[in-house]
Design brief:
six-stranded mixed β-sheet, four-stranded parallel β-sheet, globular
């Protein structure tokens, strides 16, 4: 199996599957839509699925579980890290598949670190989906800096997540920023934010 499809609703399990696939040297497909109709368009593109639930019949299935398994078989590791196949947002046309090697993410994170300092004691709220480049960028920035990734728990309620976790950094698209600033309960002085990175507008 050279290409695996990675899909999981839980961000922490998604991150585990991401690291596992890259260490195994696989190219991971990160679809935004895991409905059967959408996946049927991709079935010829991958031969394995790493997920918290079976998605496709006839494909090798690698389950993601929070419970520890007594597995004596070593996880396959490759001399070269794998790559990611992400899809564009489709805001200016049909979504396009784009392959990113680990170097793309690594050097992007280095560039971000030069402009937006991130320290080991800092916390970056994972406010964007991991199947989009914005969410992936958060993971790689924190890995490079040794910072903490805070997984959002409040289903789009940004102020609640920022306030309860005392995050120091957050990435937002303009719509998210507008909703945050116009929320009735929003009080900037309640937050520990040091940097807000805004992007993603067409």
């Amino acid at each position: 199996a050279k290409r695996w499809l990675l899909a999981c609703d839980s961000s922490d399990l998604f991150a585990v599957g991401l690291c596992a696939g890259l260490l195994a040297g696989k190219q991971l497909i990160l679809p935004a839509n895991t409905q059967s109709g959408s996946l049927s368009l991709l079935t010829h593109e991958f031969d394995g699925v790493i997920s918290d639930m079976p998605l496709c019949e006839g494909k090798a299935f690698f389950p993601l579980k929070k419970e520890l398994a007594n597995n004596t078989l070593p996880w396959p590791q490759s001399e070269q890290l794998g790559s990611l196949l992400l899809f564009t947002s489709g805001s200016s046309g049909p979504p396009k598949a784009v392959v990113h090697c680990w170097r793309n993410h690594y050097y992007s994170a280095q560039g971000s670190q030069a402009m937006i300092p991130l320290k080991p004691q800092d916390q970056w709220l994972l406010s964007l989906p991991l199947y989009h480049i914005g969410g992936q960028a958060i993971v790689w920035r924190c890995l490079l800096a040794g910072a903490q990734i805070v997984v959002a728990q409040n289903k789009g309620q940004l102020f609640a997540d920022l306030n309860s976790n005392q995050a120091s950094h957050v990435s937002l698209v303009p719509t998210q920023l507008y909703r945050l600033l116009t929320e009735q309960k929003f009080w900037a002085h309640c937050l520990q934010l040091q940097h807000i990175l805004v992007g993603g507008a067409a």
